[in-house]
Specification:
The chain has about 300 residues and is an alpha/beta fold. The protein has two domains: about 240 residues, 3-Layer(aba) Sandwich (Rossmann fold), CATH 3.40.50.410; about 40 residues, no CATH class. It has eight helices and ten strands. The strands form three sheets. It has a six-stranded mixed beta sheet with strand order 5-4-3-6-7-10, sandwiched between helices. Strands 1-2 form a two-stranded antiparallel ribbon. Strands 8-9 form a two-stranded antiparallel ribbon. Helix 3 runs antiparallel to helix 4. The chain is elongated. The two termini are about 35 Å apart.
Protein backbone atom coordinates (compact mmCIF):
# COMPACT_ATOMS: atom_id res chain seq x y z
CA UNK A 1 0.00 0.00 0.00
CA UNK A 2 2.98 2.36 0.47
CA UNK A 3 3.48 5.28 2.85
CA UNK A 4 -0.09 6.63 2.73
CA UNK A 5 -3.66 5.40 2.81
CA UNK A 6 -6.75 7.03 1.37
CA UNK A 7 -10.35 7.17 2.46
CA UNK A 8 -11.64 4.90 -0.29
CA UNK A 9 -9.29 2.11 0.82
CA UNK A 10 -10.42 2.44 4.43
CA UNK A 11 -14.05 2.32 3.28
CA UNK A 12 -13.41 -0.78 1.17
CA UNK A 13 -12.22 -2.67 4.24
CA UNK A 14 -15.87 -2.91 5.25
CA UNK A 15 -16.11 -6.01 3.07
CA UNK A 16 -13.21 -7.69 4.86
CA UNK A 17 -14.88 -8.04 8.26
CA UNK A 18 -17.44 -10.78 7.59
CA UNK A 19 -15.28 -13.31 9.41
CA UNK A 20 -14.14 -10.97 12.20
CA UNK A 21 -15.76 -10.64 15.60
CA UNK A 22 -14.73 -8.82 18.75
CA UNK A 23 -14.13 -10.63 22.05
CA UNK A 24 -17.24 -11.00 24.18
CA UNK A 25 -17.80 -8.64 27.05
CA UNK A 26 -16.37 -9.83 30.34
CA UNK A 27 -18.83 -11.19 32.87
CA UNK A 28 -19.83 -8.65 35.48
CA UNK A 29 -21.54 -9.46 38.75
CA UNK A 30 -24.83 -7.62 39.03
CA UNK A 31 -27.75 -8.16 41.44
CA UNK A 32 -30.73 -9.91 39.90
CA UNK A 33 -33.77 -11.60 41.35
CA UNK A 34 -31.98 -14.66 42.72
CA UNK A 35 -28.37 -15.47 43.45
CA UNK A 36 -27.01 -15.90 39.93
CA UNK A 37 -24.61 -13.56 38.17
CA UNK A 38 -25.22 -11.98 34.81
CA UNK A 39 -23.63 -9.83 32.13
CA UNK A 40 -25.48 -6.53 32.04
CA UNK A 41 -25.95 -4.80 28.73
CA UNK A 42 -29.29 -3.18 28.89
CA UNK A 43 -30.21 -4.23 25.33
CA UNK A 44 -32.11 -7.44 25.99
CA UNK A 45 -32.25 -10.82 27.67
CA UNK A 46 -30.41 -13.95 26.60
CA UNK A 47 -31.58 -17.35 27.88
CA UNK A 48 -28.82 -19.14 29.81
CA UNK A 49 -30.19 -22.24 31.56
CA UNK A 50 -32.93 -23.82 33.68
CA UNK A 51 -32.15 -24.69 37.29
CA UNK A 52 -33.96 -25.62 40.51
CA UNK A 53 -35.94 -22.73 41.94
CA UNK A 54 -34.17 -20.86 44.76
CA UNK A 55 -35.70 -18.47 47.31
CA UNK A 56 -35.65 -14.98 45.84
CA UNK A 57 -36.01 -16.06 42.22
CA UNK A 58 -38.65 -14.20 40.22
CA UNK A 59 -41.72 -16.47 40.11
CA UNK A 60 -42.49 -15.07 36.65
CA UNK A 61 -39.40 -16.94 35.39
CA UNK A 62 -40.61 -20.36 36.54
CA UNK A 63 -40.46 -22.91 33.74
CA UNK A 64 -43.80 -24.65 34.22
CA UNK A 65 -43.13 -27.42 31.70
CA UNK A 66 -39.91 -28.49 33.39
CA UNK A 67 -41.54 -28.07 36.80
CA UNK A 68 -44.41 -30.38 35.82
CA UNK A 69 -42.06 -32.94 34.29
CA UNK A 70 -39.68 -33.11 37.25
CA UNK A 71 -42.21 -32.38 39.99
CA UNK A 72 -39.84 -29.76 41.42
CA UNK A 73 -40.01 -25.99 40.79
CA UNK A 74 -37.48 -24.90 38.14
CA UNK A 75 -36.76 -21.40 36.95
CA UNK A 76 -35.30 -19.94 33.77
CA UNK A 77 -32.03 -18.04 34.12
CA UNK A 78 -31.15 -15.21 31.75
CA UNK A 79 -28.00 -13.24 30.98
CA UNK A 80 -28.68 -9.58 30.40
CA UNK A 81 -26.65 -8.33 27.48
CA UNK A 82 -24.34 -5.48 28.33
CA UNK A 83 -24.01 -2.71 25.78
CA UNK A 84 -20.34 -2.17 25.03
CA UNK A 85 -19.36 0.85 22.93
CA UNK A 86 -16.07 0.64 21.05
CA UNK A 87 -13.57 3.50 21.29
CA UNK A 88 -10.61 3.36 18.90
CA UNK A 89 -7.51 5.43 19.70
CA UNK A 90 -5.45 5.70 16.51
CA UNK A 91 -1.88 7.01 16.67
CA UNK A 92 -0.76 8.89 13.54
CA UNK A 93 2.29 10.53 15.07
CA UNK A 94 5.71 10.94 13.46
CA UNK A 95 7.21 7.68 14.75
CA UNK A 96 4.45 5.79 12.94
CA UNK A 97 5.65 7.20 9.62
CA UNK A 98 8.09 4.37 9.05
CA UNK A 99 8.26 1.15 7.07
CA UNK A 100 10.97 -0.89 5.42
CA UNK A 101 9.07 -2.85 2.75
CA UNK A 102 5.34 -3.22 2.15
CA UNK A 103 3.90 -0.21 3.94
CA UNK A 104 4.26 2.15 6.91
CA UNK A 105 3.17 1.65 10.51
CA UNK A 106 0.85 4.64 10.16
CA UNK A 107 -0.98 2.88 7.31
CA UNK A 108 -1.29 -0.36 9.29
CA UNK A 109 -2.71 1.66 12.19
CA UNK A 110 -5.28 3.27 9.89
CA UNK A 111 -6.27 -0.08 8.38
CA UNK A 112 -6.57 -1.70 11.80
CA UNK A 113 -8.76 1.12 13.09
CA UNK A 114 -11.02 0.80 10.04
CA UNK A 115 -11.33 -2.98 10.44
CA UNK A 116 -12.27 -2.70 14.10
CA UNK A 117 -14.79 0.03 13.33
CA UNK A 118 -16.50 -1.94 10.55
CA UNK A 119 -16.49 -5.10 12.67
CA UNK A 120 -18.24 -3.31 15.51
CA UNK A 121 -20.86 -1.85 13.17
CA UNK A 122 -21.40 -5.30 11.63
CA UNK A 123 -22.35 -6.51 15.12
CA UNK A 124 -24.52 -3.45 15.84
CA UNK A 125 -22.18 -1.90 18.44
CA UNK A 126 -21.56 1.81 18.91
CA UNK A 127 -18.24 3.02 17.51
CA UNK A 128 -16.25 6.17 18.11
CA UNK A 129 -12.64 7.17 18.28
CA UNK A 130 -9.75 9.53 18.75
CA UNK A 131 -7.07 10.09 16.12
CA UNK A 132 -3.98 12.04 17.08
CA UNK A 133 -0.50 13.15 16.16
CA UNK A 134 1.91 15.77 17.47
CA UNK A 135 -0.25 18.35 15.73
CA UNK A 136 -3.36 17.67 17.80
CA UNK A 137 -6.34 15.34 17.79
CA UNK A 138 -9.90 14.88 16.54
CA UNK A 139 -12.59 12.79 18.16
CA UNK A 140 -15.88 11.11 17.28
CA UNK A 141 -18.28 10.13 20.04
CA UNK A 142 -19.46 6.50 19.87
CA UNK A 143 -22.59 6.03 17.76
CA UNK A 144 -24.29 3.14 16.02
CA UNK A 145 -24.27 4.38 12.44
CA UNK A 146 -22.19 4.45 9.28
CA UNK A 147 -21.96 8.24 9.32
CA UNK A 148 -19.89 8.33 12.52
CA UNK A 149 -17.49 5.73 11.13
CA UNK A 150 -17.07 7.69 7.91
CA UNK A 151 -16.30 10.79 9.96
CA UNK A 152 -13.66 8.96 11.98
CA UNK A 153 -12.07 7.36 8.90
CA UNK A 154 -11.97 10.76 7.25
CA UNK A 155 -10.04 12.16 10.22
CA UNK A 156 -7.65 9.21 10.13
CA UNK A 157 -7.05 9.68 6.40
CA UNK A 158 -6.41 13.40 6.87
CA UNK A 159 -3.92 12.83 9.69
CA UNK A 160 -2.23 10.04 7.76
CA UNK A 161 -1.78 12.10 4.63
CA UNK A 162 -0.37 15.04 6.58
CA UNK A 163 2.60 12.96 7.73
CA UNK A 164 5.96 13.66 6.10
CA UNK A 165 9.67 13.34 6.77
CA UNK A 166 9.63 16.92 8.05
CA UNK A 167 9.91 16.68 11.84
CA UNK A 168 7.24 18.29 14.05
CA UNK A 169 7.79 21.89 15.10
CA UNK A 170 8.03 23.14 18.68
CA UNK A 171 4.34 24.05 18.57
CA UNK A 172 3.42 20.49 17.56
CA UNK A 173 3.44 19.16 21.10
CA UNK A 174 0.37 16.94 21.49
CA UNK A 175 1.61 13.75 23.18
CA UNK A 176 0.61 10.12 23.60
CA UNK A 177 -0.34 10.89 27.20
CA UNK A 178 -2.48 13.81 26.04
CA UNK A 179 -4.36 11.34 23.85
CA UNK A 180 -4.88 9.03 26.84
CA UNK A 181 -6.25 11.95 28.85
CA UNK A 182 -8.76 12.66 26.09
CA UNK A 183 -9.68 8.98 26.08
CA UNK A 184 -10.31 9.06 29.83
CA UNK A 185 -12.62 12.03 29.30
CA UNK A 186 -14.52 10.49 26.40
CA UNK A 187 -14.87 6.84 27.47
CA UNK A 188 -17.94 5.85 29.46
CA UNK A 189 -17.80 2.86 31.84
CA UNK A 190 -18.16 -0.44 30.01
CA UNK A 191 -16.39 0.74 26.84
CA UNK A 192 -13.96 -1.45 24.94
CA UNK A 193 -10.94 0.76 24.24
CA UNK A 194 -8.49 -0.20 21.49
CA UNK A 195 -5.22 1.73 21.59
CA UNK A 196 -3.39 1.43 18.25
CA UNK A 197 0.16 2.75 18.48
CA UNK A 198 3.83 1.82 18.38
CA UNK A 199 3.92 2.92 22.05
CA UNK A 200 7.33 4.52 21.56
CA UNK A 201 6.41 7.72 23.37
CA UNK A 202 4.97 6.62 26.69
CA UNK A 203 5.61 9.06 29.53
CA UNK A 204 5.91 8.91 33.29
CA UNK A 205 2.13 9.11 33.73
CA UNK A 206 1.23 6.49 31.08
CA UNK A 207 0.87 3.63 33.55
CA UNK A 208 -1.39 5.70 35.79
CA UNK A 209 -3.58 6.67 32.83
CA UNK A 210 -3.86 3.07 31.63
CA UNK A 211 -4.82 2.09 35.17
CA UNK A 212 -7.65 4.64 35.17
CA UNK A 213 -8.89 3.42 31.80
CA UNK A 214 -8.82 -0.24 32.83
CA UNK A 215 -10.84 0.19 36.03
CA UNK A 216 -14.22 0.42 34.30
CA UNK A 217 -13.37 -0.55 30.71
CA UNK A 218 -11.81 -3.33 28.66
CA UNK A 219 -8.49 -2.55 27.00
CA UNK A 220 -6.80 -3.85 23.88
CA UNK A 221 -3.23 -2.65 23.36
CA UNK A 222 -2.35 -3.06 19.69
CA UNK A 223 1.25 -2.41 18.76
CA UNK A 224 2.19 -1.58 15.18
CA UNK A 225 5.76 -2.47 14.27
CA UNK A 226 8.14 -3.01 11.40
CA UNK A 227 10.42 -6.09 11.57
CA UNK A 228 13.50 -3.91 11.14
CA UNK A 229 12.63 -2.35 14.53
CA UNK A 230 13.20 -5.72 16.19
CA UNK A 231 16.39 -6.82 14.46
CA UNK A 232 18.91 -4.98 12.32
CA UNK A 233 19.18 -5.98 8.64
CA UNK A 234 21.98 -8.31 7.44
CA UNK A 235 25.51 -7.10 8.25
CA UNK A 236 26.44 -4.02 6.26
CA UNK A 237 26.32 -0.22 6.24
CA UNK A 238 22.87 1.39 5.96
CA UNK A 239 22.15 5.12 5.62
CA UNK A 240 19.12 6.28 7.60
CA UNK A 241 17.71 9.79 7.21
CA UNK A 242 15.05 11.89 8.90
CA UNK A 243 15.03 14.32 5.96
CA UNK A 244 17.59 16.64 7.52
CA UNK A 245 20.40 14.47 8.75
CA UNK A 246 21.72 11.09 7.61
CA UNK A 247 23.08 8.49 10.00
CA UNK A 248 25.17 5.55 8.80
CA UNK A 249 24.33 2.36 10.71
CA UNK A 250 26.95 -0.36 10.85
CA UNK A 251 25.03 -3.58 11.34
CA UNK A 252 28.23 -5.63 11.13
CA UNK A 253 28.92 -4.99 14.80
CA UNK A 254 27.74 -7.92 16.91
CA UNK A 255 27.60 -5.64 19.95
CA UNK A 256 25.41 -3.14 18.12
CA UNK A 257 23.13 -5.91 16.87
CA UNK A 258 22.70 -7.40 20.33
CA UNK A 259 22.12 -3.99 21.95
CA UNK A 260 19.45 -3.31 19.35
CA UNK A 261 17.72 -6.63 20.01
CA UNK A 262 17.90 -6.04 23.77
CA UNK A 263 16.26 -2.63 23.38
CA UNK A 264 13.46 -4.08 21.23
CA UNK A 265 12.87 -6.94 23.68
CA UNK A 266 12.73 -4.54 26.61
CA UNK A 267 10.12 -2.43 24.84
CA UNK A 268 7.96 -5.49 24.07
CA UNK A 269 8.35 -6.88 27.58
CA UNK A 270 7.28 -3.54 29.05
CA UNK A 271 4.12 -3.49 26.94
CA UNK A 272 3.28 -7.11 27.73
CA UNK A 273 3.80 -6.44 31.44
CA UNK A 274 1.45 -3.45 31.33
CA UNK A 275 -1.12 -5.51 29.43
CA UNK A 276 -1.00 -8.27 32.05
CA UNK A 277 -1.21 -5.77 34.88
CA UNK A 278 -4.35 -4.15 33.50
CA UNK A 279 -5.86 -7.38 32.10
CA UNK A 280 -5.61 -5.97 28.58
CA UNK A 281 -5.29 -8.00 25.40
CA UNK A 282 -1.96 -7.43 23.65
CA UNK A 283 -1.81 -7.63 19.84
CA UNK A 284 1.00 -6.97 17.38
CA UNK A 285 0.45 -5.98 13.74
CA UNK A 286 3.44 -6.06 11.38
CA UNK A 287 3.92 -3.84 8.36
CA UNK A 288 4.97 -6.97 6.45
CA UNK A 289 1.75 -8.96 6.99
CA UNK A 290 -1.82 -8.49 5.83
CA UNK A 291 -3.80 -6.63 8.50
CA UNK A 292 -7.11 -8.47 8.08
CA UNK A 293 -5.45 -11.89 8.24
CA UNK A 294 -3.48 -10.91 11.35
CA UNK A 295 -6.56 -9.60 13.14
CA UNK A 296 -8.63 -12.62 12.21
CA UNK A 297 -6.04 -14.96 13.70
CA UNK A 298 -5.56 -12.91 16.88
CA UNK A 299 -9.25 -12.24 17.50
CA UNK A 300 -10.05 -15.93 17.15
CA UNK A 301 -7.45 -16.58 19.84
CA UNK A 302 -8.91 -13.90 22.12
CA UNK A 303 -12.40 -15.24 21.53
CA UNK A 304 -11.34 -18.73 22.59
CA UNK A 305 -9.52 -17.52 25.72
Amino acid sequence: MGPYCDLSQLMALRWSVKNLSLPKAKSVSRPQSGQHQSRFKGRGMEFAEVRVYQPGDDIRSIDWKVTARRQTPHTKIFNEERERPLLIVCDQSQSQFFGSQRTFKSVRAAETAALFAWTALEHNDKVGGIVFSERGHREVKPARNRKSIMKMLSYISDFNNSLSITPPTETDNFTFNDALNETIRLAKPGTMIIIISDFLHMGVSTEKQLSRLSKHNELIMLRTFDPIEEELPPPGFYPVSDGNETLLINSKSETARQNYIDWADTHKDTLKSLARKFKAAYIQVSTHKDTAETLQRVLLTLKAS
